[in-house]
Amino acid sequence: MPGTDNALLRPEVWRAPDGSVGRLVTVKPGMCGHNSLFVGQVGDWTWETVSEVCGTDAFNAVDDRGRPTYLSFYYFRVRSGGRLHPGGLTFGDRIETTSRVFGFGSESVLTLHRIRRVPPGAEPEPGQGLEPDEFFAARQPDCLYVQNFNRWVTRSHAGSNEGLISSAPADFRHAHLPRLPAAHSPRAAYGAARAHGTFHDPADPEWEELVAADEVEYPIDITRDINGVGLLYFASYFSIIDGAMLKMWRNQGRTGRRFLDRTVLDHQLCYLGNADADSVLRIRLRSWRRRDDPAEERWNAVVEDAASDRRLAVCTLHVRLEGSNAAAQ
């Protein structure tokens, strides 16, 4: 097409000296918006990166018994460096992603991603790797960061998504992967969330409770929430929880426009189980507001199977409300 640089429409991929996988991609409609499309894209990058560096095809993996095995998401964290957040990406943005995999034994891996917008006319920086300290202690303000902790799982019995069991592919290589410093392990964070039902400390004196309890029921939508192998898609948890939080928001008399205008500074989600296609989910909700800055809030969701009370996920968001008056509707 005249006037179109077709190279902009195709991703470029490279390997950095530290083993990171870099990509230069154009943001397309299927990977942005106020929904789960962005996290779904990051999940694909995780599977691609693990496949690249670990010698296995995560999209067609089987264990030593020939059973399909899946690189399931156990912990997903999205952190803004300050100026870039998921809702800030739109059609045509040129972004550079850097993804690095860390070893967690024979059945788990952790992948860190750094995402930055490349200004028009600027060049990518393919030599740059990704050190874990950047994610945890030295985030760049113009970058977005994602942490994925994944476990290999397979079904324990056919036709059910309950009772998934650990099972790594026979060709999964991990001994060569760098180890994440113990101080940066996510296990303490998701362990506490699993035990207490939140990543937030409700006793923190800097935060006051805004919503003590709210509850939403959600029948799984088989036309949207189930992936190609019959599991509740990991990114669907994001949209299901976001929809429940929108109802909590509206129950406070707030408008949908202001919900869309929020900035998500930190989003943590721990997956504890999967659900069958005919399940009904119960989502228990709470929220807090920072005492000295009411424009900052934390929202919490605990997702359960309504029939069995089995806990499926714990999620906490740290958000900033846009506008000079955080209490405005």
TrEMBL record:
Domain LnmK N-terminal: 23-200
Swiss-Prot/TrEMBL keywords: Acyltransferase, Transferase
Domain of life: Bacteria
Gene3D superfamilies: Hotdog Thioesterase
Any one GO molecular function term: acyltransferase activity
The protein's name in its UniProt record: LnmK family bifunctional acyltransferase/decarboxylase
